[in-house]
Design goal:
126 residues; alpha+beta; three-stranded antiparallel sheet; 3 strands
């Protein structure tokens, strides 16, 4: 839910954004706009530092705090929030000794992630 006290700025959508948002609202194959990236990390990962790094990026870049809304006005708008919580999803599979099993776990996670419903009005864009 958008709270007025958490709104930093409001912009009209660019023509390209309007087209993407139209297709989103029409329910046209939302997975077409999902881009997944994977990274292999060697060594230990400090999840707290990783989350703090994401939070720093969100604080610096408006696009990471942006949601879209069409219900309050006659036109769709992009709303930049002052603050946005980072939802860092982390699964430790380092305990799994079999590389094939690890790869299968990664592929299964990606498949589930791609099939998860995505809401441009609320969800983080990354």
């Amino acid at each position: 839910m958008l709270l007025k006290k958490n709104i930093q700025n409001i912009f009209r959508l660019s023509p390209a954004q309007e087209g993407l948002y139209f297709h989103y609202l029409a329910g046209d194959k939302p997975s077409a706009y999902i881009e997944q990236l994977s990274y292999r990390i060697h060594g230990l990962l400090d999840v707290g530092i990783a989350k703090a790094s994401w939070e720093y990026l969100f604080s610096r870049h408006e696009v990471l705090r942006t949601v879209f809304n069409h219900k309050k006005m006659d036109i769709p708008l992009q709303v930049v929030l002052k603050e946005r919580e980072v939802d860092l999803c982390y699964h430790d599979i380092s305990h799994e000794p079999d590389a094939h099993v690890k790869e299968a776990l990664i592929q299964d996670f990606k498949k589930v992630d791609r099939s998860r419903p995505f809401n441009l009005n609320e969800d983080v864009l990354v």
